[in-house]
Amino acid sequence: MSQSERIFEYLSNGGTLTVAEALNKFGCYALSQRCTEMMRSGVPIERDMVRLENGKRIARYKMGGLAHG
Q1: Do residues 61 and 45 lie in contact, with contact meaning Cβ atoms separated by under 8 Å?
Q2: Apex CA 33: angle with CA 27 and CA 21, to 5°?
Q3: pTM of this prediction exceeds 0.90
Q4: What is the Cα–Cα distance from 55 to 44, expressed in whole angstroms?
Q5: How far apart, in whole angstroms, are the C-alpha atoms of residue 29 and residue 8?
Q6: 20 to 30 A Cα–Cα from 35, which one of 5, 52, 60, 63?
Q7: Phi and psi of 66, rounded to 5°?
């Protein structure tokens, strides 16, 4: 199973990922690119900006609702 497929499966099962988590779980250095690829193929990926305890903001990705056609 490819890295993108593993990330898709994880997100589709309700998981959420930051870049650091994607690196630890899947060895993925380019989570935003993988999510962009999925979005271009029609997968509803959402990005929430979260603030860490140190004040920095990072993106957390999750599977969004189904698109209505």
Answers
A1: yes
A2: 35
A3: no
A4: 28
A5: 15
A6: 52
A7: -70, 140
